[in-house]
Amino acid sequence: MLTAVAGINWGDEGKGRMVDMFADDYDIICRYQGGNNAGHTVVSDRGKFVFNLLPSGILHSGVVNVMGGGMVIDLEHLCGEINSLTARGVRLTPDNLKISSNAFICMPYHRMQDVLEEDRLGDNKYGSTRRGIAPVYGDKYMKKGIRMGDLLDKPSLEKKLMDMLQWKNLTLCGYGAHAAQVAESMKWIEKHSPQLIEFIFETSEYMYDAAVAGKSILFEAQLGALRDIDYGIYPYTTSSQTLAGYAPIGAGIPGSKLDLVIGVMKAYSSCVGEGPFTAELSGKEGNELRNAGTEFGAATGRARRVGGFDVPASLYGVRIQGADEIALTKLDVLSSLDRIPVCVAYEIDGIKTCKFPTDSSLLRAKPVYEYMDGFKADISRCRCAEELPAAAMRYVRFLEEAVNCPIKYVSVGPKREDYITLA
Ligand code: GDP
């Protein structure tokens, strides 16, 4: 069974929590793209964990976690994540964690370039996390990257770095910054790689053998459909493919077909960073939703942009993810609202449409809002459809119809057991 869990919206849909929930049913969990530019939160009986790089199945014994070749990895950040897990009693060994030798390394000079470029853009910034993700993916396609497998041959790696930094410094110095030095880069690598070497594998072969042997594999995405580099709200996207269709490629088994795509969709909208966000609600309505969903950046405390459920964007997200079924998250957040705002369509140049524009007309789109009855009840302890208030169930069925995809799971809280399976 090959299953992908992918985001339908802008990210932060609660994918990590869903992956953690499904993890026991799978032999392997594989992160197939992205870097440490987003966090997946998992609340287990051991407390709250945030994973930026490690797959969200890492807390389950008997599950092999694979970091696929489609990822970009900041060695220092990964060591930090591993150390904090170890400190909390989670044991990581080459048996439960495997890092692809094909994954690219996000170097300190990538972070530096990210900061320099966001600062240069000023008011027109993309809202980058400044963690070097766009520069490292850019270098990958310029064929100037270094990969995890290079850590196994340091003399050759040092030579590659000499060639690459000559090229990279043309850019860094163009910003007026200091040139990156080979010795400094090698020192950083020497400091952070020893701990990681034992986890580096040719994971493509491992994944292929596992798929052929009929093992069950769950592919985990970072961010959501609207952040996909090819089909998202470019350039306010991430720099990799967040779509389920890319999962087998990023995981190293490009010829394999997915059996199931579970789209994770949030009961309302939130968007971190810049770019068009048609359903955005401001003022009292926005504040109420933001507070109810505690939509504030984990690291910065910065208020996230929020809005009602966005039908055109989610319909598009379901389509490009190829979702077979939906896991709806955060329904409990709407408990306090008297009426639930839903952006049912966009109005563009005076024309009402449910089609999500993929061109610059998106910038002119205005939300068409309708309101549904609120359910005004604590639903966090509901464990079956019959326990949900009728108004909550009406909302779920409304969304199901609006995005034309069955909702199979409804999450009513952040903890592992806080969910309902619908028939
Ligand atoms: P991801 O990147 O898609 O995994 O999402 P994040 O972890 O960034 O954000 C989801 C946040 O919502 C986390 O803090 C989760 O613990 C929390 N969460 C997930 N599902 C639910 C839910 O059904 N209800 C509530 N109240 N919180 C949830």
Quick description:
By secondary structure, this protein is α/β, with parallel strands linked by helices. It is 30% helix and 22% strand. Helix 3 crosses helix 4 (133-141).
What would you note in describing this structure?
It is a single chain. The protein is an alpha/beta fold and about 425 residues long. The chain has 11 helices and 20 strands. Strands 9-7-5-2-10-1-11-15-19-20 form a 10-stranded mixed sheet, with helices on both faces. Strands 14, 16, 17 and 18 form a 4-stranded mixed sheet that branches. A hairpin with a 2-residue loop joins strand 16 and strand 17. Helix 3 packs across helix 4. The radius of gyration is 22 Å and the shape is globular. The mean pLDDT is about 95. It binds guanosine-5'-diphosphate.
